[in-house]
Amino acid sequence: MTLFWIASVILIAISILLIALPFIKKKSNNDEQLRDELNKAFYKDRLSELEEEADEGLVENQQDLIDDLKQSLLDDIPADEKKHDESNTSALAVIIPSALLVIGLSYGLYFKFGASDDVQQWQEVSDNLPALSKKLMSPEGAELSEDEMSDLSLALRTRLHYQPDDSTGWLLLGRIALANRTIDTAIGAMKKAYDIESDNPDIMLGYAQALMLSQDDVDQDKARRLLGKLVQDDYVDLRVFSLLAFDAYERKDYPAAVRYWSIMQQMIGPQDSRYEMLSRSIENAQKQMGQQVGTGQSVSVTINVGDQVSADPSASLIVSVHTADGSPMPVAAARYPLGTFPRTVVLDDGNSMLQDRKLSSLESLMVRVRIDSDGNVATKDGDWFGESEAVKMGEPVEVMINNQY
């Protein structure tokens, strides 16, 4: 506000100067010089005439006439000075009221129509940006009131006007837009953040979340690619799998939706209050698939490798589920790209080897994992492998790959 008042004083001073300038440059300021020049010319002409008349004998008292001429010039000076003083007084009589009028109108109109209270509130909100941002980023960010959301949006827009390369600011603005369901604004803000910092997982997730809400198929395809990249990079965040499950369910890919919700259950555990909600979502998807509620099960396998293991990045990862006694014939199996470790995969009835023997029919099981280096499942020479202990259905499984055929 200090800068505003300084600027306003400078502008008013310039306005007053513009009002006074015509009076300062008024031609009357040159009247004295013009008067003196005219008087000198008149005096010289009259002296010449008196000399001529004296030479012709027409004037007897030449000196008296010269003295009278000088006296008339002296009498002219006070009258002109008085006129000059009156002119100065007249100029001040115009300038001073005009200056007061400019000051009164300027500040009066500002206080009436200038929204000074809104400007002050805007500056207070801008100063409060760090506290509001911290609150939004915290787990309790959803508790921001509507007024706080509005204040934070205003403060962020102000900051981004001066710092357009602030990716965090664009991310926060996009999250606010998502909370307010203004999808176009959310996509635009998230895109700016992504353009600035495309390798930031939080920004990738936020951008994907905004694109997923778009009605444009191109936007939704881009969202799936971003989420897939996050999964490949082992970015463990419930929101990634939640978005993937939501998208799969909307596309009627119910097995994929069940798989993603099952992963989420494995990540949070039965003690989490969201576990039951995910169970209901899984049951609903299974109903859509025509399955009997409660018969579908999935196995979540967390895989890691020993320090001595070295594998070709183009190798495959073969995961197989067996009965608890270690029977060589798998009940379910799946092949994945090697990827990075540690990583988690989920197998369900869709990975069952036999139609009449589902994975969900097992009460207990064990898991074997092998790095297939040549693409032929029948050959094992030189392949690295590992297997788990026997566990009950529904329990998480961990496998360490540290053995070699």
Automatic annotation (TrEMBL):
The Cytochrome c-type biogenesis protein H TPR domain, residue ranges: 119-275
Keyword set, alphabetical order: Cytochrome c-type biogenesis, Membrane, Repeat, TPR repeat, Transmembrane, Transmembrane helix
Lineage: Bacteria, Pseudomonadati, Pseudomonadota, Gammaproteobacteria, Vibrionales
A biological process term (GO) from this entry: cytochrome complex assembly
A single cellular component GO annotation: plasma membrane
PANTHER family: CYTOCHROME C-TYPE BIOGENESIS PROTEIN CCMH
NCBIfam families: cytochro_ccmI (TIGR03142)
Coiled coil regions, renumbered to chain: none
First and last residue of the signal peptide: none
Transmembrane segments: 6-24, 91-111
Protein name as it appears in the record: C-type cytochrome biogenesis protein CcmI
Segments forming domain Cytochrome c-type biogenesis protein H Ig-like: 300-402
Record-linked InterPro entries: C-type_cytochrome_biogenesis, Cyt_c_biogenesis_CcmI, Ig_CycH, TPR-like_helical_dom_sf, TPR_CcmH_CycH
